[in-house]
Specification:
By secondary structure, the protein is α+β, with helices and mostly antiparallel strands. About 20% of the residues lie in helices and about 30% in strands. It is built from nine helices and 30 strands. A five-stranded mixed β-barrel has the order 1-2-3-5-4.
């Protein structure tokens, strides 16, 4: 981009060759001119052709072609209060602002400097030069060359900027990003201001003459060489000294002198720790052992606890089954908690070994991390490095004397500990509890869930119903505190009795009915039908008939439809009875007439005609009564079995009717023999 700097020789004016002139005739001077203009009389040097050409070439070499935006060599010929005058061999001298020279005190006339041609001629005809631009272009050329060759340059950190630092390289400001200062994170940029660092040009922008440099690249280059050397000598089990350079949730990164290794949290200590910072600090130096390394991925796994013997190997030999130990809770699971006896030695307290109570234990509610507990060693396996512990065995087993303390039939007040869909767990004393089944809460009321009756934390009076020593279970009851009222209810609500009651709930299957004394009954859907159409709904208060009373299952089956059906049927029975009585009366009269005929002489035909008419009337009434009886029998066949039995019984008890035979028919044709 720039031309080579040229030294321009200065030729004395006396030695400048003059062009050869021809002799001319000069007229005589006028009276007022004292100068003699005759050429021949002047002292003129004559040059031949060869000399003329020689001096012509020499003079031409003193002239140069100059272009804007180029760097040339110039000599200081004068210094003013504001500018420095430079001679660059051009037709005129150039000016450079004095402010562009930082070393103004050392600036002297006759010294040569590189200057930049800003303009060959401004509005005033001056040649404008710049020392600053020349230095910047020279610096940019050096930076571009360093980027191409990978040359290491030196830069002075002049200031801090957003995201990094400003480094002066060859007099040109470059950007040093914060991530490129060092291999480790840098938080305080101020400590680098004023320092000189070795840098590497990693990126250039020709358009805006901007460059990005890196100090980290040089460090990584050195580290990579060290890494190759260290990895080449690595062996599993090798102990190395390192420095903690970073701590994370999962472990710590250790600087091994040019190569990093990872110390996982599980390899820091034989005991449990929640975060590496509990035992490690930044920049801490420590010895670690190489557990594994991947030559391709350049990963090194380190261990710290492996430099110490395993705690199980040094565990006190006096700790055996039955020994009391103490420690802190270091881990909690659904099935129990782990108690750390010494760092690296843990025992499991299973939920079944927390309490003598049969009620289930929630380990996450009972245990808290860091809590201290005493426990009894249940099992210990030093080879497998396992141990099981118990809390409840610190106290005597209360089930050993359960039959003496709570014999069957004992009434006691307990604390409701837990509710389930099928019952209530009640604690009678520490470690002793039992369950009240949902069916044993009340004699008369059915509950969908125990929460409708009681709640956790409430006191409840119970009776011990049964003791299962083998399975360590107690069966309890609450309703047994009172006598069974169903013995009395059986006499109050016999089958066929009618009671006024309220509908509690009704659905597509039937209705739950509240009877007197707080008793509940059930009416199937068809038995909730109303006389005027439709079905019963909640809060309806009507009469119900007891269809079934089951004392063992505590069940009462009700019907509202039977109430109005029975009332309707009873009215029909009255009409039927009256008709039967009329038919019986007619039959009796017919028999009397027959007897009169048998005794008569049959001479009075008019009398016989009257008797015939009376016989026909009685027979018609009997036929009508028979048809109604058949229709009623067909209707009775559709009634339930209970009603059929009642109807049959009533039919048996009713008096038999004699058929009214034809007056002229022989006695053998009658279906039944009429009673006398």
């Amino acid at each position: 981009m720039s031309e080579e700097t040229q030294e321009l020789p200065v030729t004395p004016a006396a030695e400048t060759p003059q062009p050869e002139k021809k002799a001319v005739h000069v007229p005589a001077p006028t009276a007022h001119d004292d100068f003699d203009w005759t050429v021949d009389k002047r002292n003129v040097v004559r040059y031949d052709k060869a000399q003329h050409d020689e001096y012509d070439v020499l003079y031409g070499s003193t002239l140069r072609t100059l272009e804007d935006n180029q760097i040339v060599k110039g000599q200081v010929v004068a210094i003013t209060n504001t500018d420095v005058v430079f001679n660059i061999g051009f037709k005129s001298d150039g000016l450079v602002p004095l402010s562009e020279f930082r070393d103004q005190e050392e600036l002297q006339i006759g010294e040569s400097y590189d200057v930049y041609v800003v303009s060959k001629e401004d509005k005033k005809g001056h040649l404008i030069l710049s020392r600053k631009n020349a230095k910047l272009l020279k610096a940019w050329e050096q930076i571009v060359n360093a980027a191409a060759t990978g040359e290491v340059v030196t830069g002075r950190i002049s200031s801090k900027t957003k995201g990094g630092l400003i480094a002066n390289v060859f007099g040109l400001d470059t950007f040093l990003p914060g991530s490129q200062i060092d291999v480790k994170p840098i938080t305080d940029y101020d400590i680098y201001v004023g320092k000189t660092l070795e840098l590497k040009v990693v990126k250039i922008n020709e358009a805006i003459k901007n460059a990005v440099v890196s100090h980290k690249a040089l460090i990584e280059s050195d580290i990579e060489n060290q890494r190759e050397e260290i990895i080449g000598k690595l062996e599993k089990g090798q102990v190395l000294e390192g420095t903690i350079k970073n701590i994370t949730d999962f472990g710590a990164f250790i600087d091994l002198g040019g190569v990093d290794g990872l110390l996982y949290i599980t390899d820091i200590s034989w005991g449990r720790i929640s975060h590496p910072s509990e035992v490690l600090t930044l920049n801490q130096k420590l010895n670690v052992v190489v557990l594994d390394y991947d030559d391709q991925k350049k990963r090194i796994s380190l261990g710290l606890k492996q430099l110490q013997p395993h705690p199980w190997d040094t565990l006190d030999s006096t700790i055996e089954v039955g020994t009391k130990v103490s420690g802190k809770i270091v881990n909690i699971e659904d099935y129990g908690a782990f108690l750390e006896i010494v760092p690296g030695v843990e025992g499991l307290i299973h939920v079944s070994e927390v309490s003598w109570s049969s009620a289930p234990t929630n380990s996450r509610e009972f245990f808290k991390l860091g809590d201290t507990h005493e426990a009894i060693v249940m099992t210990i396996d030093r080879e497998e490095r396992k141990m099981s512990l118990s809390l409840k065995r610190l106290t005597e087993d209360p089930w050993m004397k359960i039959a003496e303390k709570f014999p069957v039939g004992t009434r006691v007040t307990g604390l409701v500990k837990n509710l389930t869909p099928y019952g209530v767990f009640v604690e009678l004393t520490d470690g002793i509890g039992g369950m009240v089944h949902i069916s044993d809460l009340s004699w008369t009321k059915r509950y969908n869930h125990p929460s409708e009756f009681t709640k956790a934390g409430a006191n409840l009076d119970v009776v011990v119903l049964d003791i299962d020593n083998e399975n360590r279970k107690l069966s309890l009851g609450h309703k047994q505190i009172e006598e069974d009222p169903w013995d009395t209810f059986e006499t109050v609500f016999p089958v066929g009795s009618i009671h006024e009651a309220s509908v509690m709930t009704a659905d597509d299957k039937g209705a739950v009915v509240l009877l007197p004394y707080g008793l509940e009954g059930y009416a199937p859907k068809k038995h909730t039908a109303k006389e005027n159409g439709g079905y019963l709904a909640a809060d309806d208060k009507v009469a119900f008939k007891v269809l079934e009373f089951n004392r063992n299952d505590k069940r009462i089956l009700l019907s509202h439809a039977r109430v109005w059906e029975d009332a309707k049927r009873q009215g029909e029975e009255v009409v039927k009875t009256e008709k039967k009585q009329e038919a019986a009366t007619a039959t009796k009269k017919v028999k009397e007439i027959q007897k009169s005929i048998e005794k008569s002489t049959l001479g009075d035909l008019s009398a016989l005609s009257d008797l015939k008419e009376k016989m026909d009337t009685a027979s018609a009434k009997k036929d009508a009564a028979a048809k109604e009886e058949k229709a009623e029998a067909a209707a009775a066949a559709e009634t339930p079995a209970v009603e059929e039995k009642v109807a049959k019984k009533a039919k048996k008890e009713a008096p038999k009717e004699d058929a009214a035979g034809d007056l002229f028919a022989p006695p053998a044709a009658e279906e039944e023999k009429a009673p006398e």
